[in-house]
Write a structure and sequence with these properties.
The protein is of the alpha/beta class and 431 residues long. The chain contains eight helices and 22 strands. Helix 3 runs parallel beside helix 7. The longest helix has 17 residues. Bound molecules: glutamic acid (GLU).
């Protein structure tokens, strides 16, 4: 019997039916069977009393080859970059490895063909934690290419760890975007029965095909059931859980829309958004040589921690709450804080230094306490911003790439892509 065959295995304790999965080198004495539930189990070969072939492995059906375009349907480009959505379980380590090809991913979710004509291609196959500024530019150029071809929208499949950085980067880079660009990931690899990949992908495609929305957004599960997906704002979203399928939440904002998976219903939560048009996208890329740092304040901080960033072009300080950092000499144990203040002062003379809050929710208010007032006085920017630290970092890099230093200082706290909300609404906390 070979991998892919459907088999029935009888041991003393149980009878198990499922698909035979290739056994890894180090576990040749174990049979791995994928159950219909999507979970895999291992059975020691020596315990097997009987093994029957139920049906032989099917030849892979290439459902996407030679498919004619349906002129009545919109066209969506799916650009794959890797991540869990493109990965399979590695039965040797129990971990996941990036492996699926774009075609294989789509073969797993053939219903997407009923929503749109799909042009799918691989632009990278990587983990999102490894991404750098050039990857944002690469994705933006690929989107531009698709827009020129006249697609109705673009889906980017992406690892989830840094998906909110990418969505922020693309929101800034892609100016006057005429079609939606939706980032989609998965918290469970696509070969698992419990994977969220299919629903996220299909709901993103359905949303593109059936709405007039044209911004950069993220489409992921709203809750742990496979019920609804949220369309989340590109500059105001964050991964808030390490593993739940509903890990992506809007921060200081509401979601843009909800897509009900079973009923195929779109419900807009936000009224104002950019609409589809026939125009061109204008790329404002990120300077790939730019060095922007990010430093988190913490108790017992040392001034020397800043030294790594002396030759950088910009720095984000993830400070406390309303915009505080450890810069006061309160007693004889806090002398180091004076040195930190001096260091920050020096940095502010050399580069834009922008505050963001570790509190995540809420707005910086750097006039309330003297600590933040002192920081403002020496030139730390960010007063009244409610951007996430991640969006602050990306925006600073993007501004430094496209504007003069003085403009950067002004624009960092001006709303350009929905990254700073006008008002702090109470219903945008923990949603
Ligand atoms: N760490 C990987 C990434 O972000 C896998 C996580 C995921 O895709 O959910 O690409």
């Amino acid at each position: 019997m070979k991998a892919g065959d459907r088999i029935k295995v009888v041991t003393k304790e149980e009878t198990v039916e499922g698909i035979l999965v290739p056994s890894p080198e180090l576990e040749k004495d174990v049979l791995i069977i994928k159950l219909d539930s999507g979970y895999n189990i291992g059975i020691e070969k020596k315990k097997v009393k009987e093994m029957k072939l139920v049906s032989a492995a099917k030849e892979r059906r290439d459902v996407f080859a030679h498919v004619k375009k349906d002129k009545k349907l919109p066209t969506i480009a799916i650009l794959h970059t890797g991540g869990t959505i493109a990965s399979k379980a590695d039965y040797r380590t129990g971990g996941v490895i990036a492996k699926f090809t774009p075609k294989e991913i789509l073969e797993m979710f053939p219903e997407i063909r009923e929503i749109a004509n799909i042009d799918s291609r691989l632009i990278r196959n990587m983990w999102s934690e490894d991404m750098r500024f050039p990857h944002y530019n690469l994705m933006a150029k690929e989107v531009e290419r698709e827009v020129k071809k006249g697609v109705d929208g673009v889906i980017i499949t992406h690892g989830t760890d840094t998906m909110h950085y990418t969505s922020a980067a693309l929101s800034f880079i892609l100016e006057d975007l005429p079609v939606p660009v939706i980032l989609v990931g998965a918290q469970r690899s696509s070969d698992r029965g419990s994977s969220d990949a299919g629903e996220n992908l299909i709901d993103a495609a359905y949303f593109i095909a059936n709405s007039d929305f044209a911004e950069v957004a993220i489409c992921m599960h709203e809750n742990i059931e496979d019920k609804d997906c949220l369309i989340l704002p590109g500059t105001k979203t964050r991964k808030m859980h390490t593993s739940r399928r509903d890990a992506f939440r809007p921060i200081n904002a509401t979601a843009i829309a909800r897509v009900n998976h079973a009923e195929k219903k779109i419900c807009f939560i936000r009224k104002k958004y950019a609409k589809k048009s026939k125009g061109k996208v204008n790329l404002k890329l990120i300077d790939e040589k730019l060095k922007v740092g990010s430093i988190k304040t913490h108790p017992n901080m040392y001034a020397e921690e800043f030294s790594e960033y002396e030759k950088f072009d910009g720095l984000v300080i993830e400070g406390y709450a309303l915009g505080q950092a450890p810069v006061n000499k309160d007693d004889d144990l806090t002398n180091e804080n004076e040195r930190i203040l001096e260091k920050i002062k020096l940095f502010c003379r050399k580069m834009p230094v922008v505050m963001a809050s570790q509190a995540i929710y809420g707005r910086l208010q750097m006039n309330v306490y003297s600590t933040a007032r002192d920081l403002r006085e020496i030139g730390v920017l960010g007063h009244l911003s409610d951007m996430t630290p991640e969006t602050t970092f990306i925006k600073l890099a993007w501004l430094l790439s496209n504007y003069k230093k003085e403009e950067v200082k002004d624009l960092i706290t001006k709303n350009l892509r929905g990254e700073i909300s006008e008002r702090t609404e109470k219903e945008t906390f923990l949603v």
